């Protein structure tokens, strides 16, 4: 199947949209989809970079005179849609199954025009709760509710995937997150030497990086070392390179890094913008100072601040406030570190791919696994008390309400475990539970049950298929009583290997490079 991605990069809009599209494109390629990028040439467009990643880029007509009324897109949305349709029409070999959009300049009218022209699925990435006509909307903003898109996405069968559980991060973030949360000791205080990563985005049009470095220069060089990440795409590259060379005793400049998780792990504090990079830092527990450089970054910056995973310093206040904020992170390091780790697990790309796979292969969304909350405690207790649930439970006794409530609260607060509610997409009806209790790094014990009124509808099979995709890097164990014939068949069909009469295992499906 063919998926077309419409996105852009430029000196004005930066590189973030293209970079997260590349993460998704790589993951979809592994699943067997064929990916094409459609981009418009302009200064800082990253077209050559995308091509070097192995993807074909279909190039739209260059802008002769960019429209001042359409600063993000350069042309009207209808003109852009016409240009895309024209260039795809020239490719008789390319049947478009889905179009993925990551662009603030593209609107609901564009989405409708392209969907009707190609009879394709429309997938949109957004973080501003704009109007859409899309089968799937992805908004990785922390704590974003799908209800916020209920009135803005006009598609009748839409699914709105919202929150940091859907953050599009490279696979290695999930790997490092697992090791940090399981094997590393909980940090009680900041190491004696503070190492700071400064990354204000690939372009940093306003040269915030230089202001940050000047503020850090006033701090004793004996107590900090700094790494600056700024690409050659930035118009201020030479200025930053010169500053770093002059102060090479405490600051190092790098223009490109292929292993961002490793770079983050080598530092104790981050200073950066509030795009996807802020979620990357949170995923690995890096306490951060966020300097919003665009209005669209306000929401995620505020959410990270409220979660006590980061502090906010406004650009005009860098010289006066940065030192105090740095001191706050150093003083409360453990709290900020742990709070960041709870916000996202790095598996968001897998969750998005799972949804896209459902949409394209089955033409609909069947079920989704959402994290259980305290609001689900009563519903889960009702299921736990049913005779059908207790019949094959490893502990057949019915818990008291007090026992259940205490147990489930501990489960929900448990770091590293997963408690999913199986939810039917068409009516958001909760229909069952999948629990994964962590036993080691990438090692889990799984349990699953479906409400009796939803038996024999393929829900348990679909839930295990979703687990298979989302947690593809895990070893999963299951214990199933031998007289539970239905569950024995369920796990065998789900490609779990029987290793004992009541024991099953599914090995990791990820091959280490």
What is the terminal separation in angstroms? 26 Å
Q: Which residues sit in consecutive blocks of at least 5 with pLDDT less than 50?
A: none
Considering the protein shown, what is the CATH homologous superfamily of the largest domain?
Answer: Glycogen Phosphorylase B
Identify the quaternary structure here.
single chain
Query: What is the CA-based Rg, rounded?
Result: 24 Å
CATH architecture of the largest domain: 3-Layer(aba) Sandwich
CATH topology of the largest domain: Rossmann fold
Globular, elongated, flat, extended or rod-shaped: what is the shape? globular
Could you characterize the architecture of this molecule?
This protein has 513 residues and is an alpha/beta fold. The protein folds into 3 domains: 2-166, 3-Layer(aba) Sandwich (Rossmann fold), CATH 3.40.50; 171-341, Rossmann fold (3-Layer(aba) Sandwich); 366-506, Gcn5-related N-acetyltransferase (GNAT) (Aminopeptidase), CATH 3.40.630.30. Helices cover 36% and strands 20% of the residues. It contains 18 helices and 20 strands. The chain has helices at 16-30, 47-52, 77-89, 108-118, 171-182, 208-217, 237-246, 260-265, 276-283, 298-306, 318-331, 333-341, 348-362, 377-384, 387-391, 401-413, 459-470, 485-493; strands at 2-7, 34-39, 56-59, 98-102, 121-125, 136-139, 159-162, 194-199, 224-229, 251-254, 269-272, 288-290, 310-312, 367-371, 418-424, 429-440, 443-450, 475-479, 497-500, 503-506. The strands form 3 sheets. Strands 3-2-1-4-5-6-7 form a 7-stranded parallel β-sheet, with helices on both faces. A 7-stranded mixed β-sheet has the order 14-15-16-17-18-20-19, covered by helices on one side. A 6-stranded parallel β-sheet has the order 10-9-8-11-12-13, sandwiched between helices. Strand 16 and strand 17 (443-450) form a beta hairpin. Helix 3 (77-89) packs parallel to helix 4 and helix 6 crosses helix 11. The longest helix is centred in the N-terminal third of the chain and has 15 residues, at 16-30. The protein is globular, with a radius of gyration of 24 Å. The two termini are 26 Å apart. The mean pLDDT is 93.
């Amino acid at each position: 199947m063919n998926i077309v991605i419409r996105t852009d990069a430029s000196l004005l809009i930066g590189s973030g949209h293209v970079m997260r599209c590349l993460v998704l494109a790589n993951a979809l390629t592994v699943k067997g989809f064929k990916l094409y990028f459609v981009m418009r040439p302009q200064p800082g467009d990253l077209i050559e970079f995308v091509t070097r990643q192995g993807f074909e880029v279909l190039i739209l007509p260059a802008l002769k005179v960019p429209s001042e009324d359409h600063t993000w897109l350069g042309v009207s949305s209808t003109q852009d849609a016409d240009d895309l349709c024209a260039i795809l029409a020239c490719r008789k070999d390319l049947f478009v199954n889905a179009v993925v959009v990551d662009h603030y300049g593209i609107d609901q009218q564009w989405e409708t025009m392209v969907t009707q022209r190609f009879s394709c699925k429309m997938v949109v990435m957004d973080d501003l709760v704009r109007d859409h006509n899309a089968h799937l909307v992805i908004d990785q903003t922390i704590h974003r509710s799908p209800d916020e898109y209920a009135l803005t996405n006009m598609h009748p069968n839409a699914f709105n995937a919202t929150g940091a559980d859907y953050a599009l991060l490279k696979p290695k973030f999930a790997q490092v997150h697992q090791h940090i949360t399981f094997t590393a000791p909980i940090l009680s205080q900041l190491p004696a030497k503070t190492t700071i990563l400064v990354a204000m985005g690939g372009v940093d049009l306003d040269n915030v990086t230089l202001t940050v470095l000047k503020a850090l220069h006033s701090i004793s060089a004996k107590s900090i070392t700094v790494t600056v990440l700024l690409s050659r795409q930035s118009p201020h590259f030479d200025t930053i390179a010169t500053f770093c060379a002059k102060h090479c005793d405490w600051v190092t400049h790098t223009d490109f890094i292929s292993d961002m998780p490793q770079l983050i792990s080598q530092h104790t504090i981050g200073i950066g913008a509030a795009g996807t990079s802020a979620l990357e830092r949170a995923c690995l527990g890096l306490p951060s100072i966020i300097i919003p450089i665009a209005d669209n970054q306000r929401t995620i910056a505020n959410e990270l601040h409220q979660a006590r995973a980061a502090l906010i310093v406004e650009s005009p206040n860098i010289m006066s406030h940065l030192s105090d904020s740095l001191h706050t992170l150093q003083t409360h390091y453990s709290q900020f570190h742990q709070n960041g780790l709870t916000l996202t697990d790095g598996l968001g790309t897998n969750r998005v791919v799972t949804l896209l796979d459902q949409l394209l292969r089955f033409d609909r969304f069947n079920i989704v696994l959402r994290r259980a909350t305290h609001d689900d405690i009563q519903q889960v207790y009702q299921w736990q008390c049913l005779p059908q649930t207790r019949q094959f439970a490893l502990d057949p006794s019915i818990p008291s309400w007090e026992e259940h409530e205490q147990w489930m609260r501990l489960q929900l607060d448990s770091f590293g475990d997963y408690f999913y509610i199986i939810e039917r997409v068409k009516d958001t009806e909760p229909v069952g539970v999948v629990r994964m209790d962590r036993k080691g790094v990438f090692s889990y014990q799984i349990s699953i049950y479906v409400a009796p009124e939803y038996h024999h509808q393929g829900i348990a099979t679909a839930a295990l298929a979703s687990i298979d995709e989302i947690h593809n890097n895990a070893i999963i164990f299951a214990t199933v009583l031998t007289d539970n014939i239905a569950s024995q068949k369920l796990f065998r069909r789900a490609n779990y290997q029987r290793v004992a009469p009541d024991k099953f295992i599914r090995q990791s499906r990820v091959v280490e490079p």
